[in-house]
Amino acid sequence: MEIQEQHVEETENDSFKMAMKQHSVFIYDICTKICITNFKSKDLSDKEKLCLGKCFDRKVESFFVSSHTLTNFMEAHQKKQSESQSFTGGFA
């Protein structure tokens, strides 16, 4: 049983890491489209660097706020379901 739980945790960790990588690429794509005006230049201007930093910070912050909200919602929903099942004797 313990090995099975460890495997589930590893799978969840892998899924979380993959989701974070995908979200990072998504943020990068959005912020580069907004902030970088000259793709031919090999260096970023100070304005572009500042824009990228601010954009990335805003996107990451909004991701964590929405993740926290979703987690709270899911926990409340699971709690409600388990209370409902215990009330009906598990036949819900």
Q: Would you mind describing this structure in some detail?
A:
The protein has 92 residues and is mainly α. The chain has a domain at 19-52. Helices cover 83% and strands 0% of the residues. The chain has two helices and no strands. Helix 1 packs antiparallel against helix 2 (46-87). It is elongated and about 65 Å long. It starts with a helix and ends in a 5-residue tail after the last helix. 1% of the residues are buried. The mean pLDDT is 82.
Count of DSSP H/I helices: 2
Contiguous runs where pLDDT drops below 50 for at least 5 residues: none
Would you list the SSEs in sequence order as H and E? Answer: HH
**What value does the average pLDDT take?**
82
Oligomer designation: single chain
Outline type: elongated
Provide the fold topology:
Elements: H1 2-35, H2 46-87
Helix pairs in contact: 1-2
Quick summary of this structure?
This protein has 92 residues and is mainly α. 83% of the residues lie in helices and 0% in strands. It has a domain at 19-52.
